[in-house]
């Protein structure tokens, strides 16, 4: 039997997520995986919602561990890499975007403030920086939702001749470039 603590419960829940997907994650399955009785999980998490929030926080760790921007960094390059890092982190877990969607970044507030301060210090007006970070985040979650829901390559013969087949990576990069160019235009950079 595994020694159970809050971190172990979250780690095993993420392992279960990767194996069975978000819809099949249950406290019953998790308790069985841990070799404990289901009610013992409530010692660590009162509700499944709390467990899912802790899982989402833990799943975002690779993105949260990325270096913060420094004053000499070009804000445009940083903005692109920050958003790409977020995408990679969401893609690293089965149903990662669904797990993350709707969560509030409670543990990452200091890092978010520092990122915003960097953008403002780089000449991006505060409101524009807020909206750009929000738009990029929501765009990324939506893009990853689509990518993770994709059932595989479609047959180009099924599509009308004038509909281009665009891979997820290219579509993401094109959308990200539009967000960045719009922000740069609005800031006069």
Describe the structure.
With 189 residues, the protein is an all-alpha fold. Helices cover 62% and strands 0% of the residues. It has nine helices and no strands. Helix 1 (6-20) crosses helix 3 (48-59), helix 5 packs parallel to helix 8 and helix 8 (126-149) packs antiparallel against helix 9.
Quick recap of the structure?
With 189 residues, the chain is mainly alpha-helical. Helix content is 62%, strand content 0%.
Quick tags:
189 residues, mainly alpha, Arc Repressor Mutant, subunit A, Tetracycline Repressor, domain 2, 0% strand
Summarize the SSE layout with pairings.
Blueprint: H1 6-20, H2 27-34, H3 48-59, H4 61-64, H5 75-91, H6 96-100, H7 109-121, H8 126-149, H9 168-187
Output the radius of gyration. Answer: 19 Å
SSE string, helix = H, strand = E? HHHHHHHHH
CATH architecture term of the largest domain? Orthogonal Bundle
The CATH topology of the largest domain: Tetracycline Repressor, domain 2
Low-confidence stretches: none
Give the DSSP E fraction (strand runs of 2 or more residues): under 5%
Number of separate strands: 0
- Helical fraction: 55-70%
Q: How many strands, what sense, and barrel or not for the largest sheet?
A: none
